Amino acid sequence: MPENERVTHDIVVVGASAGGVQALVALVSTLPADLDATVFVALHVPSYAPSVLPTILSRRGALLATHAEDGEPVERGRIYVAPPDWHLLLAEGRMQLERGPKENGHRPAIDALFRSAAAAYGPRVVGVVLSGALGDGSLGLREIKARGGLAMVQDPGEALYSSMPRTAIDAVRPDLVAPAAELGRLLGEVVRTPVPTQRDLEEAMHEVEMEEVEGGASGAAQNGQPSSFGCPDCGGVLWSENEQAARAFRCRVGHAIHGRATPCWRRWASGSRRRCGSRCARSRSGRIC
Fold first, then answer.
1. Which of 16, 74, 211, 220 has its CA 20 to 30 A from that of 87?
2. Contact at 8 Å (CB) between 130 and 164?
3. Annotated catalytic residue: which of 17, 131, 162, 227?
4. Buried (b) or exposed (e) across 85-110, using 16+ Cβ within 10 A?
5. Among 270, 206, 248, CA closest to 103
6. Is 17 annotated in the active site?
């Protein structure tokens, strides 16, 4: 890209889970038809059933929504949705679909999309976290902010499930917290604003290993410290990545889990008050839940 060409926030990544369809409909219904950006969506959906989300979004908004395809080039003014049981990852100018390890128990995972967008597009990215349970997306949103991008979060008071927006707000200072429809209206303006210069970003930028971006296994030494918790997907040891505001764990296979997605937290979030009998990953003392 020529140095004198104006670079804007033209990559929008959106993550949602429980209650997310309603939030996505509200957001896309207010996006302008001439949106000068590309929107990518990761919604937690069952792996065993087809998704009609692109049809829903196309009918309720002015932009065409389709499922992303592996190797497909990025086109502005479009919405690309992660297909069921595939991680949607971004590379420069194109999309990738990967069957990497699940993160926070999900594939597609929001963190995987957000991290890959941050690595490929840096300050051009706008990350949006909508309604959902637990905390997927919060760590990816931190990567976006660290590389100079913008962070937007649905108002937890409006979200049908406020845990994911609240966790994102705790993990990173968002540039905007607003109802979903208002986020859509403001995105039409935000995507036209120029990104910070490289000089502005020098202190904020940091390197991200490709193994982490792709969510795959690695033979390299595991980052962080081994915990006393087992991976809910494969049974391997979970290593703490020691995030302060949004604690995260990852096993050697590559499965990732947010502190709020551990078994004891899932029981609490589902309304169960039964003890899970495992060590609580949210407790620094490692108490038995």
1. 220
2. yes
3. 17
4. bbbbbbeeeebbbbebbbbbbbbbbb
5. 248
6. yes
Question: What is the token pair recorded at 271?
Answer: 């309304």
Residue 44: active-site member: yes
Q: What string of DSSP letters covers the chain?
A: --TTSPPB--EEEEEE-TTHHHHHHHHHTTS-TT--SEEEEEE---TTS---HHHHHHHHSSSEEEE--TTPBP-TTEEEEPPTT-EEEEETTEEEEE----BTTBSS-HHHHHHHHHHHHGGGEEEEE-S-SS-TTHHHHHHHHHTT-EEEEE-TTTSSS-HHHHHHHHHS--SEEE-HHHHHHHHHHHTTSBPPPHHHHTTT-----HHHHHT---SSPPSSEEEEEEPTTT-PEEEE---SSS-EEE-TT--EEEGGGSHHHHHHHTT--S---SB-TT-TT--B-
Q: Which of 9, 136, 162, 258 is catalytic?
A: 136
What pLDDT is stored for residue 6 in this prediction? 77
CA–CA separation, 38 and 13 (whole Å): 8
Can you give the three-state secondary structure of 122-136, one letter per residue?
HHHEEEEECCCCCCC
pLDDT digits (tens, 9 = 90+) for 61-78: 999 999 999 999 999 999
Paired tokens of 24: 């996505």
pLDDT of residue 252: 65
pLDDT in tens, 220-246: 455 666 665 666 666 565 666 654 545
**Residue among 187, 222, 169 at smallest CA distance from 34:** 187
Angle, alpha carbons 66-72-73 (nearest 5°) = 105
Among the options 9, 10, 44, 227, which is catalytic?
44
136 is catalytic: yes
